[in-house]
Design goal:
This protein is α+β, with helices and mostly antiparallel strands and about 260 residues long. Helix content is about 60%, strand content about 10%. Strands 1-3-2-4-5 form a five-stranded mixed β-sheet, with helices on both faces. Helix 1 crosses helix 3 and helix 4 crosses helix 11.
Length: about 260
């Protein structure tokens, strides 16, 4: 009972029902006083349930702010690895004045839904550079697809490979198979035998490890995640960056691109 009383008092303090000092020092109250306080808090929350909604919204905003701050720190500490790593596939304008970095998994359903949105954004911005950071989080098939994508990029076939896999509705959220990856790669014009051979290159394992470290440094919760920044001639030289966890609309991307170049 005492533990529950303290928890209720901390909740009340968070909601502004009582001073935080009272909640922290609740052990100084007698059992009778604690029961009375518990009753008051309970009655208040029942009579004013909107307070709980307001508290949940405030907590969500604070969590979003904390996530943004953590991501910004990770971005600034790893800018070169994020924006200018030669192994990461680049689509769009390789020397674009604005760069979008996307962390993605071929089996991520949200990544699949946002792909046509990003494609439309690229069509609207001739100076847009997009860096694809493969972050395979859905298991062995995702790992296989990620390495296959890097090998396809080495053949100059990343974009057709990417489009074949990202538009494969049957291979989302853990349903993709390595056989499907090979089949889709072949349909995209990739030399599958050469792809399989080049997938053994340790540099690809290192790329995926580096992407994992980047994701961890930015405290990413999952895919997709986007970073947007100004990159004169394709090189990030500091300045404002924008972090977008999860999907975004075409209008949102366009607005952030405009702000990045302002």
């Amino acid at each position: 009972m005492l533990k529950q009383v303290k928890q209720l008092m901390m909740t009340a303090a968070f909601l502004g029902v009582m001073p935080m000092a009272y909640a922290v020092d609740s052990a100084t109250f007698s059992p009778k006083q604690q029961v009375a306080i518990e009753k008051i808090v309970h009655q208040y929350l029942v009579a004013h349930p909107v307070v709980l909604l307001e508290a949940a919204q405030a907590l969500q905003k604070q969590q979003q702010k904390d996530a943004q701050n953590q991501a910004q720190t990770g971005i600034k500490n790893n800018a070169t690895a994020l924006f200018n790593t030669p192994i990461s596939p680049v689509i769009g304008n390789a020397r674009g004045n604005v760069t979008i970095v996307e962390f993605f998994d071929f089996q991520c359903s949200v990544c699949q839904r946002v792909a046509p949105v990003l494609n439309n954004v690229m069509k609207s911005h001739a100076d847009l550079r997009v860096v694809m950071k493969e972050w395979p989080i859905f298991g062995e098939a995702s790992q296989y697809a990620a390495k296959a994508g890097l090998a396809a990029a080495k053949q100059g076939k990343f974009m057709p490979f990417y489009e074949a896999l990202i538009n494969n509705e049957k291979g989302s959220e853990g349903n993709l198979t390595t056989a499907q990856v090979d089949e889709l790669a072949q349909s995209a014009g990739v030399n599958v035998d050469l792809m399989k051979k080049e997938m053994q290159d340790p540099v690809f394992n290192q790329e995926l490890m580096n992407n994992l470290k980047l994701a961890e440094s930015m405290r990413l919760a999952g895919t997709p995640a986007f970073v947007i920044a100004k990159t004169p001639n394709g090189v990030y030289k500091g300045g404002k960056v924008f972090f977008v966890p999860g999907g975004a609309s075409e209008a949102s991307f366009n607005q952030l691109i405009q702000e990045a170049t302002a």
